[in-house]
Amino acid sequence: MSTIRIAGIPYDLVLVQDLVDKHGTELDGMFREAAQEMRVRSGMGLDYTRRTLVHEIIHSILVNTGHTEQSENENLIAALVFGLAATFLDCENGPGHPLIDPALLDLAVKGA
């Protein structure tokens, strides 16, 4: 299991083969505040996994800054992922400065 720190708060990254919400809807990722974990479906492609992690990170930031209502707005989250991915993931951040640790992504993509 890997850990990702968001605004100083550690979250366990839990990779799972099947991920569903309480209504039985299939998900690619899930942020669980009380458990301090992010669940991500394993076996997705690298780019999609990156965007899924950014999506869950945005949920975490909004919830932990008191914007719980906005964190439930999936259209807002999707827009932020689009902008952040284009800014931070689709460009060169320079050596040693990745937004998300490549080793963490490697684990997620390989489903380890």
Description:
The protein is α+β, with helices and mostly antiparallel strands and 112 residues long. The protein is globular, with a radius of gyration of 13 Å. It has helices at 46-64, 68-71, 74-89, 102-110, and strands at residues 2-6, 9-16, 29-32, 37-41. The chain is built from 4 helices and 4 strands, in the order ββββαααα. Strand 1 and strand 2 (9-16) form a beta hairpin. It has one domain: Arc Repressor Mutant, subunit A, CATH 1.10.10. The model has no long low-confidence stretch (mean pLDDT 82).
Q: CATH topology, what is it called?
A: Arc Repressor Mutant, subunit A
**Number of DSSP helical runs:** 4
Give me the strand/helix succession.
EEEEHHHH
Rg, nearest Å: 13 Å
Assign an overall shape.
Answer: globular
Low-confidence parts = none
Structural class: alpha+beta
The description of the largest β-sheet is: 4 strands, mixed
- Head-to-tail CA distance between termini: 9 Å
CATH architecture: Orthogonal Bundle
How many strands appear in the DSSP assignment?
A: 4
User: What is the chains' assembly state?
Assistant: single chain
- Strand ordering within the main sheet: 1-2-4-3
According to CATH, what is the class? Mainly Alpha
| Percent of residues in β-strands | 15-25%
Task: Estimate the mean pLDDT confidence.
Answer: 82
Overall number of structural domains: 1
What percent of the residues sit in helical stretches (DSSP H or I)? 40-55%
